Amino acid sequence: MSVVVVGNGMAGTRFAADLRALDPHRPLVVFGAEPGRAYNRILLPEVLAGRLTPDDLALPEPSGALDLRTGVTVTAIDPDRRVVYADDGSRTRYDALVLATGSRPVIPTVKGLCRDDGSLVEGAAVFRTLADCRRIVAAARGARDVVVLGGGLLGLEAARGLARRGLRARVVHARGHLMERQLDLDASHILTSTLAELGVEALLEASTAAVVGDEDGRVRGVVLEDGNRIPADLLVVACGVRADTGLAVNAGLRTGRGIVVDDRMRTSDPAIHALGDCAEHRGRVYGLVAPAWEQARVAAGVVAGLGGRYAGSRLVTRLKAPGVDLATMGDPHVRDEATEVVTFADPARHVYQKVLIRERRLVGAIMLGDNPSVGTVTQLFDRDAPVPVDARSLLFARPGTGPAANGSPGVPAAGDTLCRCNGVTAGGIATAWLAGARTTEEVARVTRASTGCGGCRDTIEGFVAALSAGPAHTPAPEEVVA
């Protein structure tokens, strides 16, 4: 049975790797519209900040036989004949088709932002692909002022990365506080002041009325609805994304906010699956890497004939901006009598902590700033485990003293998840280390740890160093699990 994957991004690549692990000999064709090998899109802000190079983002390629067609765009699907058509003139038949088409950036309707043909004017760019990132980095070399439209996760990461390159960065956000989906107002206030000290000014409740250009049509600033003009010789558009459902719509598949799938990641056509940013499961489009990889694992099992069900994901979002430590979990906006809310704020130290508890389980959390307890809180949320009777201990636990500790300060228990994106435990890393993977890079190749959002890399490096320091830092043999 032949399998075709449309999309060579993080979701499509992971599906191909998972399928290859389950069924090494299944004919597999992967189409990727972008040229070159697959890369970690989540780490693009690190390239923008100059902390990583594009080569550092390359994802491991699936082992075994693979017909990989990069730089080729699938233009249509014929579900009746089970054929996909591509812009290279090819027609490829499938028995199972996986759509991992991702999402497209939202371009706001702002006067002067786009040319007559719909393309962005010179000096303006979206921040979605590696090509976008390269264009922004090239433009930044001759720029002084950058304006970022959008105060969500990606917009803040872009602004901080460019500020780190020496540009004067301003974020223009139409809402009353930053990252309004993930943060409450108090957390936003502290994040705003943190960013200001790092060279990023946030303009809130500020709607953009027009983009101003020079006689050559190049960006020179934006005009807000209140009449204020903000100078800019570089404009980054980060106003959110929408699931790329074009192929599915034209093929007659059921769509909503994304391509609608069931618990087996099947679309309204059982021979076609969808996963990642383009998929809508139980009314939700996640748009994060960890859910995409969980979906890929389920879809690979189903396509391989082994079954599997996807019941949804528990969301942990991290802001990847140098100098800012922020993790949010679940829904931090819950307000009802059954939910206990515990908060701690220290604006002078740029620290804000908030946990929301219902029936002794975490339903949401915001951890901003230097929070030694963030690992414990994340573990409890991931596992849906009961929290301590005194919830204040969640906010002030020191490393190694929380529920996840195994009795040795600073040493994680074997079952503690150190890389959430890939579900890699301390025991799994210890097993790889004992088998000869002695560096962080070698551990990553064996376990995939730190190859997702990258937020755990410091933790992984610290744990590998601890393992190298001696047996006292290694989980007990009977606890070590792959």
TrEMBL record:
It holds the Pfam family Rubredoxin_C. Pathway: Nitrogen metabolism; nitrate reduction (assimilation). Residues 418-462 form the BFD-like [2Fe-2S]-binding domain. GO terms for molecular function: iron-sulfur cluster binding; metal ion binding; oxidoreductase activity. Keywords: FAD, Flavoprotein, Heme, Iron, Iron-sulfur, Metal-binding, Oxidoreductase. The keyword Calcium does not apply. Its cofactor is siroheme; FAD; [4Fe-4S] cluster. Its EC number is 1.7.99.4. Residues 1-296 form the FAD/NAD(P)-binding domain. InterPro entries: BFD-like_2Fe2S-bd_dom, BFD-like_2Fe2S-bd_dom_sf, FAD/NAD-bd_sf, FAD/NAD-binding_dom, FAD/NAD-linked_Rdtase_dimer_sf, NasD-like, Rubredoxin_C. The keyword Metal-binding applies. It is an enzyme of class 1 (oxidoreductase). Residues 316-371 form the NADH-rubredoxin oxidoreductase C-terminal domain. Belongs to the nitrite and sulfite reductase 4Fe-4S domain family. This is Assimilatory nitrate reductase electron transfer subunit.
